[in-house]
Amino acid sequence: MKRRSFLIGCAAVPSLSALPRQSEATEAKAALTESNLIYLSPVKSNGELSSCQSELWYAMVGADVFVCTATESWRSRAPRRGNTKTRLWVGDLGYWKNADYQSLPSIITNASVETDADAIEAALVQFGQKYVAEWGKWESKFRDGLADGSRSMMRYAVS
User: Fold this and answer.
1) Which of 28, 39, 41, 61 has an alpha carbon 20 to 30 Å from 93's alpha carbon atom?
2) Among residues 129, 116, 128, 99, which one has the least CA distance to residue 155?
3) How many CB atoms lie within 10 A of CB 44?
4) Which residue has the higher pLDDT, 89 or 113?
């Protein structure tokens, strides 16, 4: 083997190793348009997943994922403390404590607390369209909680 061929082959290895991750991200993005649930976990500064994990309803506004959650929840506290990296798994596996959600397609996102009133309203509209049967019960809880500060709208930027 010639030196030049060897170097070209070695240069291709890092890009080939990125293919499965790229494919999983593409699969996760596609699944976001079809699934009713996501599972999420903050990523700690050392790169490990937090032990705080949950299944959630979500809404899509553009390419971003929105979750309405209790302001005191770890989902809301983590980004307020600067821990913005979050892994989302997309799909519905039933009761989350018994689910192997890590087998689902996933993507790393950047979490933030959404404060823009128009973005929040757009997310609430999407929740209503997506969860039609349940929205009659939950709409006032989401809206009232957002108004009194007991709930926060989280945005997970999907790049």
Assistant:
1) 61
2) 116
3) 13
4) 113
Rounded Cα distance, 104 and 106, in Å: 6
For residue 80, give both structure tokens.
């307020």
* 1 in any annotated domain: no
Domain range for 93? 17-157
* Distance, CA of 130 to CA of 18 (rounded, Å): 33
For residue 77, what are the CA distances in angstroms to 62, 74, 141?
24, 5, 20
The pTM for the full model equals 0.80
CATH number at residue 104: 2.30.110.10
Residue 51 confidence (pLDDT): 66
- In 33-73, where does DSSP find H-type helix? none
Q: How far apart are CA 146 and CA 17, in angstroms?
A: 43
2 found inside a domain: no
User: How many separate domains does the chain show?
Assistant: 1
The answer to whether position 28 is within a domain reads yes
Asked whether residue 70 is domain-assigned, the answer is yes
